[in-house]
Structures are given as C-alpha cells and as structure tokens.
Design a protein that fits this description.
By secondary structure, the protein is α/β, with parallel strands linked by helices. The protein has helices at 2-8, 28-43, 58-66, 113-126, 141-157, 176-186, 196-208, 226-229, 243-260, 289-296; strands at residues 13-19, 46-52, 72-83, 94-101, 107-111, 132-137, 167-170, 190-193, 218-221, 237-239, 269-272, 276-277. 39% of the residues lie in helices and 22% in strands. Helix 2 (28-43) runs parallel beside helix 9 (243-260).
C-alpha cells in the first residue's frame, strides 16, 4: 500500500466520525460502519473511526482524524439531523450519513421518511384497514413532518380523509394511557407506529383488550430494525432503516469523489428508500412471507 500511495498521492485511509444518537438506536451506527467497510475493502482502503457524544465535539473529531490525512470523510449523525461541518473542510471529499449539512456544501444520504410512512400506511390499507392511527416518537421535527406527509398522502390516494384525532406523533415517547385514550375515542383498526416503543404500547393495549394482532388489529413500525420486530409476538412488520445499506451507499458516493479526483459538486441529498419487511402483525400476511422479504433485503440488515 505504501508504494501505491506514493504513486497516487493517496493515503488510502477514510475517516468516519459517528455522533451518538439522543434516542436509543441499537446497532445503527455499527450497521453504518459495516456497510462503509464493505466499500473500503473493495477499494483497498482502511476506515479510521471516532465516536463523539455531542455535535459540539464534531470539529475536534474531524481535526483528530484529519491528522491521518484521509482521502475523504464520512460523518454519521446517528439520527437524521442538520449539522454544521466546519468551513475548513470545504473542497474535501465528505459525505454525511443520516444527516444534512447546514452549510449546504457537502452531499448526504438520508432515509426517505415520507416514503417510509407512505409504504407503512399503504400496506395497512392493502390489508383492508380504513381507520389507521399514526402514533409514536420521531427523533427530529423535520422527520416527523415528513412521516406525517407520507401517512396523509397514502390515505388521500386511497380516498380516505385525514382525521387528526387518529394522530399522536410527538417528540416524546407515547404512554400507555395515551394509546388507551386514543383507542377508546377513535376505535382504530390499524396503527402506523413511528418507533418500536409505540408498537410495544399498542401490543400491550391489544393484550389488555384481548385483541389479536394481525387479525383484529394490524401494526407496522416505521424505521424500526427487524431484529427488534422479531422480539414481538406475533413478529412485527417493520420499515427497516437499513443502516448497512445507507453506509454502503454513502461510502460508494465518497469513493466516487475520491477516485475520480473530481471537483466536489454542490450539496445534493440522496434519499434512501427503506425496505418494508413483512412479518405477522398485518392482517392477511401469509406465514411464509418473512423468508421472501429477508431474501430481498439481505444486503440491508444490521
């Protein structure tokens, strides 16, 4: 590698700064790193990583990794948020993962929150549900707005009017009492849950009311890892955030910038389509559906 570096003026090192998420997202940053590492292996490069607990530490982490003179840099926020990349990194190959650049100078890969909620709602509509509640916690205000847009779009395209009384989307976790109150007042037949905890509360409600998930009540969790959905009984249908695939996509973009030695383009955002993983929590799901879905999305798992 040393001789090759002398010829190409490259170190064949890529930095990865990972910010810890304020919300619990088990395995997410590990998935990002694993997907990026796959691309590094293909290009004969090494990944140098640093984890920080707060966005205020980002400048220091970038400076520390910059001492290795990396060919480029990946920055993963752990939760889709807008972060400031120091102006000193202008013109350096740098791609953000699950984040956007406040200065609009660097490219990014972000989950398509709108499409994720749209896919979840459409799947419930296909099952025959007509009173679909949307509940739970989303990490960012923009993410929640986009999820609600996708939810409303699916309903409107199906000819169902949006009912705000069926929505409990907020910046904090939904409580048992809130789920009970919503069900008592609005009588939903299905739930789009914006996080795994909300889905757990819906399952608890179903148990108390002797309702059968997947028969009496259908549930899909948005941007929830499949391994978490597999802990539910019956197993939970999820829209997989697929961090390994996002890391793979971002690293592919970064290596294209590095190897082409091209002028860095203006910031552009690539929206990542999170795959729907069928389990048994939606009415009418065939029992053999999970295996087929795993085959289609084997590249996107944690």
């Amino acid at each position: 590698m040393a001789a090759r570096s002398l010829r190409t003026h490259r170190t064949h090192l890529v930095g990865l700064v990972q910010l810890e998420s304020p919300l619990p997202r088990p395995g997410f940053q590990e998935g990002i790193q694993r997907g990026a590492q796959h691309i590094m292996d293909e290009h004969g490069s090494a990944l140098v990583t640093r984890t920080v607990t707060d966005a205020s530490q980002l400048d220091g982490a970038l400076h520390t990794l910059g001492a290795f003179m990396p060919d480029g840099m990946l920055v993963s926020s752990g939760i889709d948020r807008n972060i400031a990349i120091p102006a000193s990194w202008r013109g350096t190959p740098l791609v953000l993962v699950d984040a956007s650049d406040r200065g609009h100078r660097h490219a990014s890969v972000q989950p398509d929150h709108c499409l994720a909620a749209y896919d979840a709602t459409r799947r419930l509509l296909e099952s025959g549900a007509t009173r679909i509640a949307c509940v739970g916690q989303c990490g960012t205000r923009d993410g929640r707005r986009l999820q609600l847009e996708g939810y409303r779009m699916a309903l409107e395209l199906a000819g169902i009017a949006f009912d705000p009384t069926l929505v409990r989307a907020r910046s904090r976790a939904i409580s048992d009492a809130a789920v009970e109150r919503l069900c008592r007042l609005t009588h939903p037949d299905a739930f789009v849950c914006l996080d795994g905890q909300a889905a757990w509360q819906v399952y608890r409600h179903a148990t108390r009311r002797t309702l059968r998930i997947g028969t009496d009540l259908s549930v899909v969790a948005v941007e929830c890892p499949p391994f978490l959905g597999d802990l539910f009984t019956p197993r939970l249908t999820v829209v997989d955030p697929a961090p390994a695939a996002m890391g793979y996509c971002a690293a592919t973009m970064l290596m294209a910038l590095i190897t082409a030695n091209a002028t860095i383009p203006p910031a552009e955002t690539t929206l990542f389509h999170c795959p729907l993983i069928e389990r048994a929590s939606v009415a009418g799901t065939p029992p053999d559906a999970p295996a087929a879905n795993r085959a289609l999305s084997a590249h996107t798992s944690y």
